[in-house]
Specification:
Layout: E1 10-15, E2 18-28, E3 35-43, E4 49-58, E5 63-64
């Protein structure tokens, strides 16, 4: 679970059997059950970003991206 997310943070979102990296747009809701709007890319066959969409996820399913 990601803690203390804020707009602009990068997060890992579960996506079926895979994961996708998105950007936090907004965090909302009560402290014990926060939800997060995340902007997710739609990739083309060559890996280029064709478009982006925003979806809401419970904060508990997200993982903050950490610097390697």
């Amino acid at each position: 679970m990601a803690k203390h997310l804020k707009p602009g943070d990068k997060v890992v979102v579960p996506f079926g059997l895979d994961e996708i990296v998105g950007t936090v747009v907004e965090v909302y809701g009560p402290p014990k059950s926060k939800s997060v709007y995340v902007r997710l890319p739609v990739h083309g066959p060559s890996g280029e970003v064709l478009e982006e969409y925003v979806n809401s996820f419970p904060e508990r399913v997200l993982r903050a991206v950490t610097a390697a």
